């Protein structure tokens, strides 16, 4: 999966490894549409050397691209062309000196912020569309922790009130139980195998809420 190709780099330690199915599951987006627009994001419009690694069906992305893709997806789903998004993306990247502008903590949902200044000019975001994009993006942005450089660091796929986290420094970015290194999939597999929640709690020293959140993650993603 990490074989280097002409348009793909090797993953950096702690950056996470996310296949297409992982992206769809974590971001709660339709797999087929994710696959279609992720290919566009990788290969046609953006700087793919930092976005992907591997090749063919084993292509994967890092954590920053996982976060960036949600914004790209919503903009494409709302009728913006890849060319429009690319133009805004590269201008923001250059002006703010960041490789991952859509993973930067600059997307503020009001009319005076840098996000709307750029997108309002380059993408002609009218008032109605601004409101709609706010409704789509604001809940997502509240699920992200940013580091001291204002770059996305961790993501809470079910929201901050749940015990599930996506952290590229743990388990290659696969969802884990908050505060542990236990993969959510491990808990769900035990549940699917007929193990009771009580026994799972004892086996892994977890609370009932942590086990229930792990099961909920995969049930919602199904």
Brief synopsis:
The chain contains 9 helices and 7 strands. With 222 residues, the protein is mainly alpha-helical. It folds into 2 domains: 18-155, no CATH class; 164-221, Arc Repressor Mutant, subunit A, CATH 1.10.10.10.
How would you sum up this structure, described in words?
This protein is mainly alpha-helical and 222 residues long. It has two domains: 18-155, no CATH class; 164-221, Arc Repressor Mutant, subunit A, CATH 1.10.10.10. 49% of the residues lie in helices and 8% in strands. It contains nine helices and seven strands. It has helices at residues 20-27, 31-45, 63-77, 82-96, 114-122, 127-141, 184-192, 197-204, 208-221, and strands at 18-19, 52-53, 60-61, 144-146, 152-155, 164-165, 176-177. The strands form three sheets. A three-stranded antiparallel β-sheet has the order 1-3-2. Strand 2 (52-53) and strand 3 form a beta hairpin. Helix 2 crosses helix 3, helix 7 (184-192) crosses helix 9 and helix 8 (197-204) packs across helix 9 (208-221). The longest helix has 15 residues, at 31-45. The protein is elongated. It starts with 17 loop residues before the first strand and ends with a helix.
For this entry, give a set of tags.
single chain, 49% helix, Arc Repressor Mutant, subunit A, 2 domains, mainly alpha, 7 strands, 3-stranded antiparallel β-sheet, two-stranded antiparallel sheet, 8% strand, 222 residues
Query: Residue-averaged pLDDT, rounded?
Result: 83
The total of helices stands at: 9
Query: Gyration radius, to the nearest Å?
Result: 18 Å
Strand content: 5-15%
Strand order within the widest beta sheet: 1-3-2
Largest sheet: 3 strands, antiparallel
Low-confidence stretches: 1-8
């Amino acid at each position: 999966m990490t074989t280097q190709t002409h348009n793909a780099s090797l993953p950096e330690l702690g950056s996470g490894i996310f296949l297409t199915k992982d992206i769809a599951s974590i971001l709660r987006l339709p797999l087929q549409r994710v696959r279609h627009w992720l290919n566009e994001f990788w290969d046609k419009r953006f700087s793919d050397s930092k976005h992907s690694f591997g090749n063919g069906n084993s292509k994967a992305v890092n954590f920053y691209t996982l976060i960036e893709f949600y914004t790209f997806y919503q903009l494409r789903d709302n009728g913006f062309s890849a060319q429009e998004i690319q133009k805004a993306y590269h201008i923001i990247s250059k002006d703010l000196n960041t490789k991952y502008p859509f993973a930067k903590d600059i997307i503020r949902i009001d009319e005076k912020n840098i996000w709307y200044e750029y997108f309002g000019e380059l993408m002609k975001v009218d008032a109605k569309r601004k409101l709609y994009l706010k409704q789509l993006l604001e809940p997502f942005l509240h699920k992200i922790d940013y580091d001291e450089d204002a770059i996305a660091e961790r993501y809470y796929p079910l929201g901050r009130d749940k015990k599930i986290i996506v952290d590229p420094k743990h388990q290659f970015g696969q969802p884990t139980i908050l505060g542990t290194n236990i993969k959510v999939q491990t808990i769900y597999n035990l549940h699917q195998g007929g193990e009771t929640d009580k026994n799972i709690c004892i086996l892994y020293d977890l609370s009932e809420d942590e086990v229930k959140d792990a099961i909920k993650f995969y049930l919602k993603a199904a």
